[in-house]
């Protein structure tokens, strides 16, 4: 192998290693195992931000197996009946991380149990540092809630609630019209529940 061949081989290997490194970092960020900050590595952060903007992420905590199962069921319904949403379940390492991602607008949706939603919204232990938490309600299955940041676009809330309500019998979901735990119902979900004439459009 010539010196020039060696240099080309080295460049190919370097690119391959860089791609593997960036993929590994991105996987860690997605799993909540690496802080999401430009200092962590600018390119993976940009890729993660792009992923978040292109996919509808619904947060759960790995420690809550029941909530994770609920999210899987709801996301499966969205993938089937609202494919443009590109809905995915994003599993944070714990509920504190879920609260942090919602509070800092790194995610807009989460599946929370009644107890978790009540504590998070009211800044009860262990969520004291997240007050005020800008959450509203979308749907309820009697044990778990799909909550959204209050800046979730109106049309998105309408489409999500409409899609899940169309499967209400199998999913056992409804919209808690009067709110719960001090949280108001998202206006889009309220419109869906009352069958008001919003134009379905996912921006």
Quick rundown:
This protein has 203 residues and is of the alpha+beta class. Helices cover 49% and strands 13% of the residues. The chain is globular.
Would you mind describing this structure in some detail?
With 203 residues, the protein is of the alpha+beta class. It folds into two domains: 3-46; 55-193, D-Maltodextrin-Binding Protein, domain 2. The protein has helices at residues 3-30, 42-54, 65-81, 95-103, 114-122, 154-166, 168-171, 187-193, and strands spanning 57-61, 88-92, 109-113, 135-140, 144-149. A three-stranded antiparallel β-sheet has the order 3-5-4, with helices on both faces. The longest helix is centred in the N-terminal third of the chain and has 28 residues, at 3-30. The termini are far apart.
List the helices and strands and how they pair.
Blueprint (H helix, E strand, L loop, with lengths): L2 H28 L11 H13 L2 E5 L3 H17 L6 E5 L2 H9 L5 E5 H9 L12 E6 L3 E6 L4 H13 L1 H4 L15 H7 L10
Parallel strand pairs: 1-2
Antiparallel strand pairs: 3-5, 4-5
Helix pairs in contact: 1-2, 6-8
Radius of gyration: 20 Å
What is the count of β-strands? 5
Bulk shape: globular
CATH superfamily of the largest domain: Periplasmic binding protein-like II
Q: Which spans of ≥5 residues are poorly predicted at pLDDT below 50? A: 3-51
Instruction: Estimate percent helicity.
Output: 40-55%
Tally of domains:
2
CATH topology of the largest domain: D-Maltodextrin-Binding Protein, domain 2
């Amino acid at each position: 192998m010539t010196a020039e061949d060696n240099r080309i081989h080295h460049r190919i290997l370097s690119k391959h290693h860089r791609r593997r490194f960036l993929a590994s970092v991105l996987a860690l960020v997605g799993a909540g195992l690496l802080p999401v900050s430009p200092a962590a590595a600018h390119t993976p952060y940009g890729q993660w931000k792009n992923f978040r903007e292109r996919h509808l992420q619904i947060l759960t905590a790995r420690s809550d197996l029941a909530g994770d199962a609920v999210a899987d069921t709801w996301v499966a319904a969205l993938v089937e009946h609202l494919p443009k949403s590109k809905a995915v379940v994003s599993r944070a390492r714990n509920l504190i991380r879920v609260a942090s991602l919602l509070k800092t607008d790194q995610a807009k949706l989460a599946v929370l149990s009644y107890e978790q939603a009540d504590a998070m919204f009211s800044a009860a232990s262990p969520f004291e540092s997240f007050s005020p938490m800008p959450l509203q309600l979308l749907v309820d299955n009697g044990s778990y809630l799909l909550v959204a940041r209050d800046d979730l676009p109106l049309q998105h809330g309408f489409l999500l609630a409409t899609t899940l309500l169309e499967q209400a019998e199998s999913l056992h979901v409804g919209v808690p019209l009067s709110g719960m735990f001090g949280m108001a119902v998202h206006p889009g979900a309220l419109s869906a529940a009352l069958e008001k004439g919003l134009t379905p459009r996912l921006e």
